[in-house]
Amino acid sequence: MASCFISSILFFSAIFVFLSTTPSFANINSKNVTSDRVKNICNATEPWNQPRCYEFYKSDPRSSTADYKELAEITIDLANSDCKKLIHWLNSLAKNETDHGYRRRYLQCSKHYSEAREKLDAGKKYLEAKKFETVEDLAANAIEDSNECIADFAKVNTTSTLLNKAKDFEFITSFVKPAVELSRKSDKVTKKPYYYTLQLILKKWVFHP
Ligand SMILES: *[C@@H]1O[C@H](CO)[C@@H](O)[C@H](O)[C@H]1NC(C)=O
Ligand SMILES: *[C@@H]1O[C@H](CO)[C@@H](O)[C@H](O)[C@H]1NC(C)=O
Ligand SMILES: *[C@@H]1O[C@H](CO)[C@@H](O)[C@H](O)[C@H]1NC(C)=O
Ligand SMILES: *[C@@H]1O[C@H](CO)[C@@H](O)[C@H](O)[C@H]1NC(C)=O
Asked: Residue 96 Cα, ligand 3 centroid: separation in angstroms?
């Protein structure tokens, strides 16, 4: 009876240990939480905007476990997909518009966002190559492209929907910079110091000429 009791305890403990160490079990709840890394990136914006920033990272399930470089990539991906939607919307607006002046402006705007998208695509490649400064510059240029779209409308009558969509795009894209900056810092920390490499080479040379 006693040994039966003890083996039951052992059996259930084993199940508990198994379940709690299985990654999928541990991750079920973490998918929907904001990681400290995301919080550090979102800290770049004003406190009242931070919940909006968290929500936007939550829309990509990779965010909860991503490191800074992956978060920079996610940020670019989210900005890119928002930009793609904006282009489709602008093209559709232009198609429906009967006023020639407005139609031309919508198409012009769509072109600015196509340029912004090219910069984001390039930014992703430079991120892969760890050319962090270039990624930051490209993201800043993509935001400028969006500003140019709005500037083209400023003299006439910018629709508030367009303004809001442009601001959303700029909001998302503004987090590329802090994400890249934190990637750069964490890359420096994990990189082995120079003398370490030198030591390895010397060792090889001295002991295995
Ligand atoms: C994540 O949390 C939000 C509220 O914070 C909720 O609306 C959403 O359904 C949750 N998603 C999952 C997958 O649990
Ligand atoms: C968040 O930003 C504020 C002001 O920019 C700064 O003082 C604070 O140290 C930052 N917090 C973290 C955790 O980075
Ligand atoms: C353009 O018109 C089509 C058909 O009338 C409509 O479905 C679409 O939503 C319109 N596009 C925009 C951006 O308003
Ligand atoms: C501003 O735009 C709206 C919607 O496109 C239009 O109905 C309105 O007439 C425009 N106003 C002026 C002053 O052009």
From this structure: 6
> 43, 48, 54: which to mutate for ligand 2, most atoms within 8 A of CB?
43
Q: Whose CA is nearest to atom 11 of ligand 4?
A: 157
How far apart (Å, rounded) are the C-alpha atoms in residues 3 and 23?
32
109 close to 88: Cβ distance less than 8 angstroms: no
- Tens digits of pLDDT across the chain (209 residues): 556 555 665 555 554 444 444 444 444 455 667 899 999 999 999 999 999 999 999 999 999 999 999 999 999 999 999 999 999 999 999 999 999 988 999 999 999 999 999 999 999 999 999 999 999 999 999 999 999 998 877 655 667 888 999 999 999 999 999 999 999 998 887 765 555 566 666 666 665 54
Angle between helices 50-58 and 68-96 (to 10 degrees): 90
Distance CA(35)–CA(58), nearest Å, equals 10
Among 156, 157, 160, which is best to mutate for testing ligand 4, by the most ligand atoms less than 8 A from CB? 157
Cβ-contact 40, 175 below 8 angstroms: no
DSSP state of 184: H
Nearest CA to ligand 2 atom 13: 40
Sequence letter at residue 159: T
Which residue reads 């800074």 in tokens? Answer: 68
